Structures are given as structure tokens and as C-alpha cells.
Amino acid sequence: MDTYDILLYGSYLLIALGAFVSIVMPLIKSLDNPKSLLKTVVGIVGIAVLFFIAYSISSDEVLPKFTTEQINMTAEKSKSIGGMLIMTYILSILAIGGIVFTEFNKAIK
């Protein structure tokens, strides 16, 4: 086993540990205040509903060049990728709109 392999596995371990801690610690802290946990659940449900809407309006069309054995794109994969892209577009537009609104609101006040 080379030094690069050891360091690579160590970085995988640290990434997994960081992800675990960043998810679990806020949950432990929110047990003190259950209303903050409710806000988190509402946010997650909102994202799920937005994905369902984006998934519903996305197309499942797959071009013939993407159905090769190497790529193996199916209609279901195409529809889910389209849903994720549409959801990303909607969230990006909402974020930019929020930034513009905040700046105009600050300028007016």
C-alpha cells in the first residue's frame, strides 16, 4: 500500500466523519428547541414537493446516441436528471430574485 493510498483513505474517513458530525450535531442541538426542528422538516418537505413538481414536468426523451452500452441512459434516468435540472433552475432563480429584492429593500430603507 502506497502513501497516496493511505492518505486517500484517510481523507475519505475525514469526509465521512465531517458529514456525519455536520448532520448529527444540529439534530442533537435542535432537541432542546423542537420548533427549530419543525422548520427543518418544513424545508425538507418543501424541497421534496419542488422536486416532485419539477420531475412531473420533465421529459423522459432519450436520444439514440445515449442508449449505448457504455452510457446506458434509460427514460427513468433521463426524467430524474431533467427533474433535478429544473429544480436547480427554479432554486437559482429564487436565490437571485431574493438577492435582488434584499438589495432593493436595503436601498429603499
From TrEMBL:
It comes from Algoriphagus pacificus. The chain crosses the membrane at residues 6-25, 37-57, 81-101. Keywords: Membrane, Transmembrane, Transmembrane helix. This is MotA/TolQ/ExbB proton channel family protein. The keyword Membrane applies.
